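can u do me a favor
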């Protein structure tokens, strides 16, 4: 398989070079490579190609030939691929598709389904104040929705998938399998690309199974299902989060460590939410701040099981990040971030115990921490030498806007999905109840408010990405975007697929068990 992959790789590289002078072919090829999830094999070639296109664009305006300049699909694709890469392209490029009244020209656009769909995808990368893209999003969403019944089955399926979760907001590798079946049907498809994508998918699938196996062994041997029976038993499901963060082979260690910590966090969340009383949890939280298990000697055994899991995990992180046998600054950062989470869980428990409904704003301040993303991200970052610099960890510890945005997307989208179920038991008020109370809204109005908030935080992510890309590694910034993407997937349509894991089963089978027939 490895040999075959190498052979295909060579062919695709040659293909990429051969379309050097044709911007349309080049952009479409890059788009296919990304959608098929094989673009990571051609990072430098794609980087170079996009840099070249951007430089030409920045120097001379839109240099594609006059005719192509009015090709809505091409302009939208160019805009999306460049913005996704962190290049700022003005949304004014879409002005030419408006009529004299300043509206999107229905007569031209509605006939061009591909162009309309591409514009819809491009509009997902909008930042604050880009009214033209806001309008484009609404216009294309409504038009596409209204015409899907007139399209071929394959095109309608693709567009419906995209209307449910746009390409930019989907975890790339989780879309790859379905894209392969659509791609196969396209008359212009390339067999080399398709076979390469299938082989690569199957090869990586074996790799992921090994990773999941390692953590499953640890989870079983630790006997958490028996020792902490109140907690969700989700060692396979937790893998979906780090897998979404970055699924490339070179980040295997980071995935392993992040999966393990997420499993520990799941135990911890249930210990706070379901198991402990407020008094016990106060003591437990204090013990975590002191990093001293002897402080909870009087508490039931389950607390010690969870505490020990945490201590063992941190010892492992210590040996991974130590320098010359000494604990490094990395571990101090990690512990601090973890202690913040424990304190935030306690705040929630106290609110719940007192029957207090905080304001939506206060809830969100605490919610950044209870999303658990600061811990998951810091563990991933700490496991990658190139990322774990003091500068990056200091920046991260101050909760930069991109971290706040991705954490809050997860927090509030999770609450939309799970608040009804959670409110049936003793659970802290969710974003929905807090929002209803602060603004005097009905439940439906609160849903609408929160959905707008989710869009607001996506724009923050897009804006921050464009700013930060100058100083930070792209793969680091992609972790933040990918966590927002997996949150969108995990809690889509008011379902909590993590807790209600039957809903996740088919996806897990597709990602980990069923190979693609080559
Ligand atoms: C908070 C969140 C969605 C985190 C996602 C990342 C993640 C898998 C963290 C570890 C496990 C966890 C806390 C899941 C959410 O449970 P829950 O739905 O019971 O969370 P809650 O008790 O905070 O509502």
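np, heres the sequence
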């Amino acid at each position: 398989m490895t040999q075959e992959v190498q052979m295909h790789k060579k062919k695709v590289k040659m293909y990429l070079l051969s379309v050097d002078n044709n911007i349309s072919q080049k952009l479409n090829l890059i788009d296919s490579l990304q959608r098929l999830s094989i673009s990571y094999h051609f990072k430098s070639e794609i980087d170079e190609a996009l840099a070249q296109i951007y430089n030409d664009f920045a120097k001379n305006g839109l240099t594609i030939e006059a005719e192509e300049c009015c090709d809505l699909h091409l302009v939208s694709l160019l805009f999306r691929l460049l913005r996704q890469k962190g290049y700022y392209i003005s949304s004014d490029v879409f002005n030419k598709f408006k009529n004299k009244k300043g509206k999107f020209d229905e007569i031209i656009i509605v006939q061009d389904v591909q162009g309309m769909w591409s514009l819809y995808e491009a509009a997902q990368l909008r930042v604050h104040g880009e009214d033209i893209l806001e309008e484009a999003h609404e216009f294309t969403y409504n038009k596409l929705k209204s015409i899907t019944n007139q399209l071929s089955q394959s095109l309608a399926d693709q567009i419906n998938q995209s209307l449910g979760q746009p390409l930019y907001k989907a975890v790339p590798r989780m879309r790859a399998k379905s894209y392969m079946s659509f791609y196969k049907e396209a008359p212009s498809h390339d067999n080399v690309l398709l076979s390469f994508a299938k082989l690569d998918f199957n090869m990586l699938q074996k790799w992921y199974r090994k990773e999941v196996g390692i953590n499953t062994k640890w989870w079983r041997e630790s006997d958490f299902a028996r020792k902490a029976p109140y907690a969700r038993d989700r060692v396979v499901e937790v893998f979906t989060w780090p897998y979404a963060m970055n699924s490339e082979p070179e980040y295997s260690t980071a995935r392993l460590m992040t999966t393990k910590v997420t499993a520990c966090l799941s135990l911890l969340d249930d210990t706070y939410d379901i198991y402990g009383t407020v008094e016990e949890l106060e003591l437990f939280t204090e013990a975590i701040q002191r990093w001293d298990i002897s402080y909870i000697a009087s508490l039931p055994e389950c607390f010690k099981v969870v505490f020990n899991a945490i201590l063992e995990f941190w010892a492992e992180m210590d040996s991974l990040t130590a320098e010359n046998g000494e604990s490094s600054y990395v571990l101090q950062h990690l512990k601090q971030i973890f202690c913040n989470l424990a304190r935030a869980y306690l705040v929630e428990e106290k609110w719940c115990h007192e029957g207090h409904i905080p304001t939506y704003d206060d809830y969100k301040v605490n919610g950044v921490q209870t999303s658990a993303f600061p811990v998951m991200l810091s563990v991933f970052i700490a496991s990658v030498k190139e990322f774990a610099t003091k500068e990056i960890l200091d920046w991260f510890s101050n909760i930069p806007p991109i971290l706040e945005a991705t954490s809050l997307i997860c927090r509030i989208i999770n609450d939309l999905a799970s608040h009804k179920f959670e409110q049936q038991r003793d659970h802290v008020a969710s974003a929905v109840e807090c929002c209803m109370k602060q603004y005097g809204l009905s439940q439906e109005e609160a849903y609408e408010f929160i959905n707008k908030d989710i869009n607001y935080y996506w724009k923050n992510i897009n804006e921050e990405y464009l700013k930060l890309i100058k100083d930070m590694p792209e793969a680091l910034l992609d972790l933040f975007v990918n966590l927002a993407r997996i949150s969108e997937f995990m809690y889509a349509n008011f379902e909590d697929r993590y807790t209600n894991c039957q809903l996740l089963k088919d996806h897990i089978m597709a990602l980990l068990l069923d190979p693609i027939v080559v």
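The chain has a mean pLDDT of 93. hope that helps!!
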